From TrEMBL:
InterPro entries: Acyl-CoA_DH_CS (IPR006089), Acyl-CoA_Oxase/DH_mid-dom (IPR006091), Acyl-CoA_Oxase/DH_mid-dom_sf (IPR046373), AcylCo_DH-like_C (IPR036250), AcylCo_DH/oxidase_C (IPR009075), AcylCoA_DH/ox_N (IPR013786), AcylCoA_DH/ox_N_sf (IPR037069), AcylCoA_DH/oxidase_NM_dom_sf (IPR009100). Belongs to the acyl-CoA dehydrogenase family. Residues 5-119 form the Acyl-CoA dehydrogenase/oxidase N-terminal domain. Its cofactor is FAD. GO terms for molecular function: acyl-CoA dehydrogenase activity; flavin adenine dinucleotide binding. The keyword Iron does not apply. It holds the Pfam family Acyl-CoA_dh_N. Gene3D superfamilies: Acyl-CoA dehydrogenase/oxidase, N-terminal domain (1.10.540.10), Butyryl-CoA Dehydrogenase, subunit A, domain 2 (2.40.110.10), Butyryl-CoA Dehydrogenase, subunit A, domain 3 (1.20.140.10). Keywords: FAD, Flavoprotein, Oxidoreductase. Residues 234-389 form the Acyl-CoA dehydrogenase/oxidase C-terminal domain. This is Alkylation response protein AidB-like acyl-CoA dehydrogenase. Residues 125-222 form the Acyl-CoA oxidase/dehydrogenase middle domain. The lineage of its organism: Bacteria, Bacillati, Actinomycetota, Actinomycetes, Micrococcales.
Amino acid sequence: MFELTKDHEDFRNLVRDFAEGEVAPHVEAWDRDSHFPADLVPKMGELGLFGLNAPEEFGGAGLDEGGFTYLCLAIEELGRVDQSIGITLSAGVGLGINPILTYGNDEQKQTWLPDLIAGRALAGFGLTEPEAGSDAGATRTRATLADGQWTINGAKAFITNSGTDITSVVTVTARTGETADGKAEISAIMVPAGTRGFTVEPAYRKLGWHISDTHGLTFEGCQVPETNLLGQRGEGFKQFLKTLDDGRIAIASLAVGCAQRMLEESTEYAKTRIAFGKPIGVNQGVSFQLADLAVSVEAARLLTYKAAWLKDEQEAGRRGVAEVKHAASIAKLYATEAAVTATRTATQIFGGNGFMEEYPVARFFRDAKILEVGEGTSEVQRMLIGRGLGLPTA
């Protein structure tokens, strides 16, 4: 059975110290100004956070086993201080680095991975479209091949890390033809930043994740070399579904960090906030809410750690893909809904102060909702869990 080792806990403390020292003093201002701190990314790279899953030849940690669990611990600890910084790491590794690391050829890996792993650059993952979210198979972006060039036309929506000053490349899915049975052939193609015909739209005005970089992307006659195909032609959809499986565990880790912070903030507030001459924590109406919150945080953490452990076991050849997919959906569903509930509980305990931006619970309240949407909505997770139980499909 899984358990965290002393090395895991030492690593957690390392990341927590970094988050408290390099992130916490600045997040209120960054959030207020919707500022993406590009200079923080190389510092995260120096700490090794972008290379936990990567081999040493590209600057990674070269861990024989357990790299994914380390990554989830890092995301949790960054997310405990700020959700936007947590998703910057999660997307930077899971959606930026891992597709190249998993499906790229030697030249692609040598070209892109060293800078990405070092934190000198970021990469994006272009799957979602204005009319193709959960139904990713409805992709409308098209890429045609002629004279050794892919010509891409279409649009992507809600793409993280796609428009920063250090974004180097975005991998996008596109229809590249039809299969023998008439279905869309979807491939993955790498588009370097600054390519003619590739436009990064203005940043979204978002409810939360104000520090995270998020843009729509437009492709109009955008041409890249044929060699920018990532993996096999027609395998892009399968590749990105696997990427999403891993990403669900990472988002669960981010949710655990959110819920943990809300438990800490609410417990401390309940000890010090005086009402009717006594701390509000003496009231069962408050203490019972905190007890329930503590239970949900512990359950979310255990489900997430189990899924991360299973992912590492799969990488070592000791577990199957289906088991990991099932555990990932369970962790993602429970942890993200627990996080949203945790922020609502915290805001209620803080009362009027919970509605004020000077208190972190307001920021976490805004940030939490997207956890139930990104990397597959709660409805999609329930559908996948049902399939994992062997229920018949429509």
